[in-house]
Amino acid sequence: MKTDIQIAQEAEMLHIREVVSPFGIEEDDLELYGKYKAKVSDALWNKINNRPDGKLVLVTAINPTPAGEGKTTISVGLGQALNRVGKKAIIALREPSLGPCFGVKGGAAGGGYSQVVPMEDLNLHFTGDFHAITSANNLLAAMLDNHIQQGNALNIDTRQITWKRCVDMNDRVLRNIVVGLGAKADGIVREDHFVITVASEIMAILCLCNNMDDLKERLGNIIVAYNYEGQPVTAKDLQAVGAMAALLKDAIKPNIIQTLEHTPAMVHGGPFANIAHGCNSVRATKTALKLADIVVTEAGFGADLGAEKFFDIKCRKSDLKPDAVVLVATVRALKYNGGVPKTELSIENLEALEKGISNLEKHIENIQKFGVPVIVTLNSFATDTKAEYEYIRTFCEERGCEFALSEVWTNGGEGGIELATKVIETLETKESNYHPLYPLDMPLKDKIQTIASEIYGADGVVFSPSANKALKQLEELGFGNLPVCMAKNQYSLSDDQTKLGRPTGFKINVRDVYVNAGAGFVVVLTGNVMTMPGLPKTPAAFNIDVDSNGNITGLF
Asked: Which of 34, 248, 307, 310 stands 20 to 30 A from 270 (CA)?
């Protein structure tokens, strides 16, 4: 069996101008990065912004397991299938972070015959967006420390610096560091921290902004520290906005590449969903909606994280209205949730399936709380059985969901026609009554408790003393009307990753809260979730190599 990277390297790609031409994009609308990738120019938006929007379909999933779910693979395969049945479809995805590429996953371009290409470029440096975000983030950090060194005219309290440096790599030793060691000219000695680039507020800002003016306003609102009076100090106060925007002037433009079947894919922005808001850029999604009949987008990790943030943050802030949701599961993952060891997932086990399907059930209920129709799809494996499929199909249909089997890994778009047909049928016959989960005028604590009880199924929330203090301060400073972005482990509905299925009788533990004033949401840290991941004992980097001809191996 061929690996993902072998399939991708054998693909015959079209010049990107040929891929986008049927969608009314001319070569002058592109800023080319070679033959197969490009950025969409600002001029294109001015040409198309008066067009009606196409339909928006979100792809999300159950909680991830070691058995695999294949959310990106389904997104790509569905886009290909929709074009096969006569719809003009575009896929809108996130860019992969280098951290997981070299850490756990080894790549994030889909899989099998449902991939976006050039796969190696996408998984590595791509068009340089993440480097630009990292540079802008660290420029602000450097200007902050330089301001303090040069006399601290803003009276910044060095014990209340909130801005962290970032790097797009899993590097646990940078979580907590000391800077300024050495001579007097080397700066003030203080504790500092790093986050991974995809958790940076600048990543969130880039993904939520509409244009350069919006970007600059949001950058200016970033809170970097508090002064001795307890008032926020912003990037605008440090006169950093113009220089940061200059670094981001190209990064805010959406990227466009292609799938193996030459379906356009707008891949732009990449915030993680477990520690950030987990959605691709608003600009990419809105541009795609003006060009296509149907746009297939994706939100990270399980629906308790990415989909909730898609509905409560991205859609609310950008006035997007999703028309349907595709919820991805696998027989193997459901059996894993039912207690079956990874080594035994290939064996039919209806009893474990009956137990583990409670995870899928909770995600169905959660999506229905937002008023959006749901289609459940199973990413098929050769070891699945007909009895297992029929049990899941009946389970879903009894809960008002459409159901479709997907074979897009093996058969590409052809293997997604059943799913594409169900999606089209849903779009044509079921009305979406999308609404957020909570109102913005609800107190911050109540918003957190609403998500914990309604989405996670928790019995309540335990706030640490520091979290209580931060919540009180943020509301006093006028940030109480912002949505909340929950940072939680992705493997469980609870904040304990060992609790699989549909756990009950638990509370969510909130250890800290801070505001991303530029992005426009309050971040809530739960359990032991980290904003800087670490590498595993056997990182994917061990298997990645490049030969004398420049061919990369080991990405998957």
From this structure: 34
Residue 506's pLDDT band (boundaries 50, 70, 90)?
A: very high
d(CA 366, CA 408): 26
Give the residue numbers annotated as catalytic, written as ranges.
Answer: 71, 73, 94, 105, 273, 301, 381, 409
264, two tokens: 């356009």
CA-wise closest residue to 265 among 250, 276, 280: 280
- Residue count of the chain: 556
Q: Which two tokens stand for residue 239?
A: 């006169």
Q: Which of 282, 86, 272, 79 is nearest to 168 (CA)?
A: 272
> CB burial class (10 A; 0-12, 13-18, 19+) of residue 518?
buried
Asked if 201 and 516 count as a contact pair (C-beta separation under 8 A), the reply is yes
> Is the pTM above the cut of 0.90?
yes
Is the pLDDT assigned to residue 4 strictly greater than 90? no
| Contact (Cβ atoms closer than 8 angstroms) between residue 71 and residue 325 | no
Q: What are phi and psi of 341, to 5 degrees?
A: -60, 155
144, 232 Cβ separation under 8 angstroms: no
Taking only the tens place, the pLDDT of each residue in 232-243 is: 999 999 999 999
